[in-house]
Amino acid sequence: MSAATASVIANTTAPAPRRDVSPGRRLRVVDAPARRRKPKLVYGVVAVLGAFLIGAAQMSLSILTTQTTYELSALTQEQRELTWQKQILYDDVAGLSSPQYLAANASALGMVIDESPSYLRLSDGAILGTGDAAMGASSIDAIGRGSVANSLIATTPLVTAPDATIEGAPVETLDLTVGGSNTPAPLTDGLPTPTTH
């Protein structure tokens, strides 16, 4: 190795000269940190009071919801009972408007069934049939002893005779066959049938 090479190697491995630190960046003692202020008591009270208010609001809403549920249940039960009463009233109206009840009330008023009905022709106003008023008593039992019983009106009093019902007070019929009338005898059971030739 030559002296020049050795000096180059010595220069490259030699430590670099130290730089001086600038005078403004010297180390110094730091002051103690400023004391933190104590949290105010008001903040703690507000936080606790807020938590209690939220809990009270939630509890009151829960109570109101439960109360409303009970009221809904009571109203649903009342609606169900009113629906049953409405159905009972519909059944009563259906019974009172039945042909058996109307016929029994008409018979109690003294109305009779005409054996030969008359009809009015609307086109010219002509009366077809005898046109005479029905006289005497009906040969058909209006209460309908031979007809199918209507259980909706079995115990309903008649409008014209409040002490009588369809089953309790039969309508009296007169026997018109004795007086020479061609009215057939009253039927005791069964439906009347027309005479055919």
How would the blueprint of this fold be written?
Elements: H1 3-13, H2 41-96, H3 99-108, E1 119-120, E2 127-128
Antiparallel strand pairs: 1-2
Structure description:
By secondary structure, this protein is mainly alpha-helical. 39% of the residues lie in helices and 2% in strands. It has three helices and two strands; from the N terminus they run αααββ. It has a two-stranded antiparallel sheet with strand order 1-2. A hairpin with a 6-residue loop joins strand 1 and strand 2. The longest helix is centred in the middle third of the chain and has 56 residues, at 41-96. The model is unreliable at 170-181 (pLDDT under 50).
Hey, roughly how much beta strand do the residues contain?
under 5%
Q: Which stretches of 5+ consecutive residues score pLDDT under 50? A: 170-181
How many helices? The count is: 3
Classify the helix fraction into a percent range. Answer: 25-40%
Labels describing this entry:
2% strand; rod-shaped; 197 residues; 2 strands; mainly alpha; two-stranded antiparallel sheet; single chain; 3 helices
Summarize the structure.
By secondary structure, this protein is mainly alpha-helical.
